[in-house]
Amino acid sequence: MANSFLLEMSGLQTPANITLGTYAEDGHTQPTLDWRNVAVASGFILVNGIMSIMLGLKLEKSLIIASIRCLVQLTIMGYILEDVFKARHPAIIMLMTCVLILLGTYETVYNKSKQTFRGMFLAVLLSTAFSTLLIGIIGSKYAMEQHPFWIPETFIPTMGMLLGNMMSGMAVALSSCLSSVGSRKEHIETYLAFGASRWEAGQSIAIEAVRLAMLPTINQMSVIGLISIPGMMTGQILGGAPVMNAVRYQQIIMFLISASTALGVLSAVVACIRVMIDNRHRLRPERIVNGKASIFRDIRDLIVATWKLFVYVICCCGKRNKKNQQERRGSYQEGVEEDTDHEDVRQPLLNN
Predict the structure, then answer these.
(1) What is the pLDDT of residues 203-242, one digit of tens each?
(2) Are the CB atoms for 217 and 169 separated by under 8 Å?
(3) What is the torsion angle, in degrees rounded to the nearest 10, for the CA atoms of residue 13, residue 15, residue 21 and residue 23?
(4) Residues 125, 126, 132, CA angle at the centre, nearest 5°?
(5) Which end of the chain is more exposed for a tag (fewer CB within 10 A), N or C?
(6) Alpha-carbon gap, residue 332 to 236, rounded angstroms
(7) CB neighbourhood size of 283 (10 A)
(8) How far is CA 290 from CA 98, 107, 180, 206, in A?
(9) How far apart are CA 312 and CA 30, in angstroms?
(10) What is the pLDDT of residues 338-352, one digit of tens each?
(11) DSSP helix/strand/coil, 2
């Protein structure tokens, strides 16, 4: 094992009873964990439960549901990732990424947002997919030097971390934007009354929403490595990766998280302002739906919108065919009239 700089400076010696297996250069030994170890760790959840009961927080039900979801979801994710890593096929990896984006969007819209608007799911989905795929692919290919970029051991965990941070930021931004439309209604209408466009009137709301969404990421970057050791770095160290390599990976991930969160939040806020202030530059606070969104209502609206679009396309095609038939009839009648005129002109000559 390499000598430690701190040991040389302090003159201390490594205790003789410490095994070198964990820090051996030829490999990193880790114990094999089973469900018994998970059960021991789950006992610490009782601390939260006792505090909730003693203080009357009424969080026991939420705590139990969250713990069960954590166990079930991570177990299913583990089995799926094992198979995805074995397959190592780009189509399967991108399908897995799309599923993560879809689930992240669902969590943001239907579980984290207390106020919604019509079309919010589609706006959040497109914003999330665009920002995470763009930043994730560029970061994996050029910053992490993964060739190809879709190597599952790196790409899928990276996308998961980008989505996890973006979900919180996007929920904060949309909540701030929708609440500001209600609380600053007179301010926005004054701007619009004096001839401001919807983007000029909503600029202050967008700036405040993006700022609030970016503050947690900025604070996390400020204290990382000084007070807290982040999860990815800890996982790589526990997995046997060199410490400095784990540090550089974490630095890259933090910069990717910052960029993807900013891009995704900005896209979602622009879509929100576009809905709240229509193309005629009128404020539409009635479009805000208080309370959590309902996936069944959105599915119903999607079916209705699809049916209206289908009917519109059929009507347009029918009108176009009818117009073409009328044009053909008109051109045929004009041709017949021209032939009749020519015959009338030639008739005197024939009589002579």
Answers:
(1) 889 999 999 999 988 988 888 887 777 777 888 777 778 8
(2) yes
(3) -40
(4) 90
(5) C
(6) 79
(7) 20
(8) 29, 17, 14, 20
(9) 63
(10) 555 555 555 554 454
(11) coil
* Token pair of 246 as six digits: 């784990």
Residue type, 255: F
Q: Phi and psi for 24 in degrees, rounded to 5?
A: -70, 140
Calpha distance 205→211 (Å, rounded): 10
Number of neighbours of residue 120 by Cβ within 10 angstroms = 24
Closest to 127 measured CA to CA, from 160, 154, 104, 97:
104
List, in order, residues 6 or more apart from 71 with CB less than 8 Å away.
Answer: 38, 42
> What's this model's pTM, rounded to 2 decimal places?
0.74
Q: What is the DSSP letter of 32?
A: P
Residue 228's SS3 state is strand
Structure tokens at 108: 């943001």
* Backbone φ, ψ for residue 226 (5° rounding): -100, -45
Unique residue bearing structure tokens 């209705």: 304
Q: Which residue has the tokens 């990815």?
A: 232
Distance CA 297, CA 312 (A): 22
Give the total residue count for the chain. 352
